[in-house]
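Colleagues,

For the teaching module next term, I've prepared a clean inverse folding example: a structure given as tokens, and then the sequence designed for it. I'd like students to try predicting residues themselves before seeing the answer, so please don't circulate the second half yet.
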């Protein structure tokens, strides 16, 4: 797209489209192919697919780098972790997505890496732990406790040390945080969440503004086989077109609900960073009551995913891999775009029922 001053919402709508020639479609077509005619392009579908390109172009433009699509968020995460040299130290949040922590802990058990878990909100502590690290892995906000990191300060010091910084930007999206501009080397997304936005696809992505890093991750994707489906990329591109509209509405709902939950009897420990679509809180009556709360709702769906147009919630410690420091009675609420009064009525009615 022409114009370096375009707003993110305009980029989300307009990037990644075919050239405007007479008779051309406005949307990039879906290419379903595993084999290609030999020549200058790819030989096999694990190397490339034209359907990946629009998604990667839009997300890369929004993040300020070059994007690579993966079959899932975990596929993207493990591709980055595979770049850590054997025996290298990884610093990561002690409260983070359970899949990420499990992948790190499994590598540490096999002596592939040295793992140091930190409080990401403690910048001094992060930098102290990362003095000789190969990689600093950040979530900001963290899942599900919604702690935030000073990405800029951590990245600045890490750059001087030659330590790579990767940021899981799934909760924030590039519309609320652009880690590459803050000095990070890599950004990772579970595009199944807010980017896709409709709970109908499984997709991940890595974004970087470094040529060497891009080539290394691309090689891991090809050799590791975590390549995305054409349909998933096509759907995610369509989801990106409305990200700014969905995010604004869901964030407004989340802000209102967080304020009301803070004053609601029977609820405590409300966590909300002031932006985004995720609110976490604790049910005073305990973990069993927290589980029953999520099962009693009519409007809010009881489900483990997040970032869709529909609101979902769950008690996070029902998962065996969830970090033990996460309170047993904590509920993570992913706020959607429904009417906020309907959501509030559903929350208060469900709480009364338990």
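(Answer key — instructors only)
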């Amino acid at each position: 797209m022409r114009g370096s001053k375009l707003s993110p919402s305009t980029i989300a709508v307009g990037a990644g489209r075919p050239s405007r020639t007479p008779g051309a479609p406005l949307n990039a077509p879906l290419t379903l192919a595993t084999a290609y005619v030999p020549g200058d392009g790819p030989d096999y579908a694990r190397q490339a697919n034209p359907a990946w390109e629009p998604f990667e172009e839009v997300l890369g433009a929004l993040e300020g780098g070059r994007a690579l699509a993966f079959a899932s968020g975990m596929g993207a995460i493990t591709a980055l972790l595979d770049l850590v040299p054997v025996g290298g130290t990884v610093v990561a949040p002690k409260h983070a997505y359970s899949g990420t922590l499990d992948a790190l802990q499994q590598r540490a058990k096999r002596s592939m890496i040295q793992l140091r878990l930190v409080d990401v909100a403690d910048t001094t502590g992060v930098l102290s732990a990362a003095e000789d690290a190969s990689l600093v892995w950040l979530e900001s906000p963290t899942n599900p406790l919604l702690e935030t990191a000073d990405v800029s300060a951590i990245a600045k010091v890490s750059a001087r040390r030659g330590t790579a910084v990767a940021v899981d930007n799934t909760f924030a999206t590039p519309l609320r945080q652009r880690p590459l501009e803050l000095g990070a080397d890599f950004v990772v997304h579970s595009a199944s969440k807010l980017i896709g936005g409709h709970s109908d696809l499984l997709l991940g992505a890595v974004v970087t503004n470094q040529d060497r890093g891009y080539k290394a991750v691309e090689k891991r994707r090809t050799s590791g086989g975590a390549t995305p489906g054409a349909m998933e990329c096509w759907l995610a591109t369509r989801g990106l077109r409305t990200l700014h509209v969905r995010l604004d509405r869901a964030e407004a709902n989340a802000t209102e609900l967080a304020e009301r939950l803070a004053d609601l009897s029977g609820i405590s420990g409300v966590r909300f960073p002031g932006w985004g679509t995720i609110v976490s809180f604790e049910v005073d009556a305990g973990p069993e009551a927290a589980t029953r709360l999520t099962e009693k709702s009519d409007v809010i769906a009881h489900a483990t995913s997040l970032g869709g147009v529909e609101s979902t919630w769950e008690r996070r410690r029902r998962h065996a891999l969830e970090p033990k420091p996460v309170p047993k009675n904590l509920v993570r609420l992913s706020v959607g775009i429904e009417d906020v009064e309907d959501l509030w009525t559903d929350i208060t009615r469900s709480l009364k029922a338990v």
